[in-house]
Amino acid sequence: MSTKKENREAVLSEEREYHSQSSGIFFKLKRLLHRDRSDYQKIEVIENEYFGRILLLDGLVQTSERDEFFYHEMLVHPAFVSHPSPQNILVIGGGDGGALKEILRWPIKHSCLVEIDQQVIDVCQEYFPWLLPSLEDDRTELVIADGSEFIAKTDKKFDVVFIDSSDPAGPSACLHERDFYEKLKRCLNPEGIAVSQAGSPFYHLDSIKKKDAFLKKLFKNVCFYTSPVPTYPGGSWCFVFLSDEVQPLKIKRNPPRGLKYFNLDIHQAAFSLPNFLKNLGSHV
Ligand code: AG3
Description:
- The structure is a single chain.
- By secondary structure, the protein is of the alpha/beta class.
- The chain has helices at about 5-10, 70-80, 100-105, 120-125, 145-155, 180-185, 205-220, 265-270, 275-280; strands at about 15-20, 25-30, 30-35, 40-50, 50-55, 60-65, 90-95, 110-115, 140-145, 160-165, 190-200, 220-230, 235-245.
- The strands form three sheets. A seven-stranded mixed β-sheet has the order 9-8-7-10-11-13-12, sandwiched between helices. A four-stranded antiparallel β-sheet has the order 3-4-5-6, covered by helices on one side.
């Protein structure tokens, strides 16, 4: 029988993310590398035997050394293979640099990363240095600002905008609202595409439905797609591809070499949805 002390030690030696009141994921701590609170959120980096380094913001897993490529490749490459020639790219959030790393595989002119929390950048530069060399690339501009204020003010136009936010809580909450997408639409070139992470199809279906309803009023093509992401709630994740002119299944270009997850078969398959998600997106 375990004593109270043993239970407490067990909890201290692992990190848990609750996915519902009664389910979740845990990671045994090999080491706690960083735990601090910025002006915006709690930032933690832990080391786990299986997943390597894991970044958590306000207790929610953002990325891990072992599975980051599922999420970042699937966030970025579907838009790049379906746009004729994207040159100017915007990333909202994504301070860990993983999305930018994938973007810079393509021959683009300019990419702008707008992250609200300088401390996320600093912590990731220290603990995930392989994700962030992208900041030194001379095609990259880093802006520390609130993403929704940035898009409300900017007069620049972009070919592709990626919203690499956290869940709809804390500093990311406004990036999931209709108002944000209305403003975002004004920053897109005519053949522009926006891609946003949209949550877990299993745990966050209500928020996906809500998003689908307002996005359909704003964009002609609202296409949800999914990918496995082992460390995220439910293990499968939803993204939404938004455009007035571009259709995701009309492939224009081959993906770059050297990817670990994405290829054109995966691209096709990702837009095939299970029945419970099928009627949400307008499919092409
Ligand atoms: N952004 C999406 C993280 C969502 C995770 N949600 C959760 N664990 N409940 C990830 C940022 C990686 N660049």
